[in-house]
Amino acid sequence: MSQNSQTEQLTQAGQQIEHDSFAIVDREVGEHYYSDGQWQVVRRMIHATADFEFNGLTEFSAQAVEGGIQAILNGAPIVADVEMICVGLSQPRLAHFGISARQFIADADVIDAAKRVNSTRAVQAMRKAHNLGLLDGGIVAVGNAPTALLEVLRMINEEGIKPALIVGMPVGFVSAAESKDLLAELHDVPWIITRGRKGGSTLVVAAIHALLSLAETRQKNH
Questions:
Q1: How many whole angstroms separate alpha carbon 214 and alpha carbon 1?
Q2: What angle do CA 195, 212, 204 make, to 5 degrees?
Q3: Which stretches in the chain have pLDDT values below 50?
Q4: What is the rounded CA–CA span in Å between residue 99 and residue 181?
């Protein structure tokens, strides 16, 4: 499949607009402390939001970008906290690597379980993903629900699961910043976060698209 069908706009006009947009971001940011791979992620997040604060708010564990690239090349599943992430991800790009993006927050059994034990649907959705064997070696993508991220952290600490990468960017005022601070304390699981209250599904999608692009570049160069 062609590069354009995977990682770029499909028309020459679209490609030029995206190229010009990235050039503007590069020019306005100037010098930064990110590595080349990390900057590909941050730049796309800024491009998706027009918010230059993500130059600085975005943080990476040491092996985050490499871990994400390898997970994609291995066809690792993506588990999202909300459907918006799954809808936002390019299906042709995912299909190129044989990747599925799944979420369970609206499943009837998840809703029933959340009501039964008085927890959130996000918590029960991540438990279902774990029971289906999707979290170990998978990419966890959280853009909305801090409780989803907190539950994944609990399972890492108490049940020994080990995702290939956690993109932890929940947005909001209750536990959002705190859940990301806790994720940043992990040493054995790679992570990408946005510090503070800012986050959202759009950012998660942008970050994963950047990783997909980096993975395809790696694939074409080998």
A1: 16
A2: 30
A3: 1-7
A4: 29
pLDDT averaged over every residue in the chain: 94
Q: Annotated active-site positions, please?
A: 47
SS (H, E, C) the chain: CCCHHHHCCCCHHHHHHHHHHHHHHHHHHCCCCCCHHHHHHHHHHHHHHCCCCHHHHEEECCCHHHHHHHHHHCCCCEEECCHHHHHHCCHHHHHHCCCCEECCCCCHHHHHHHHHHCCCHHHHHHHHHHHCCCCCCCEEEECCCHHHHHHHHHHHHHHCCCCCEEEECCCCCCCHHHHHHHHCCCCCCCEEEECCCCCCHHHHHHHHHHHHHHHHHHHHCC
> pLDDT tens across 115-136, in order?
999 999 999 999 999 999 999 9
Domain boundaries of the chain, sorted by first residue: 4-220
Rounded-to-integer distance, Cα 60 and Cα 95, Å? 26
- Lookup result for tokens 């304390």: 185
Record the pTM: 0.93
CATH class of 4-220: alpha beta
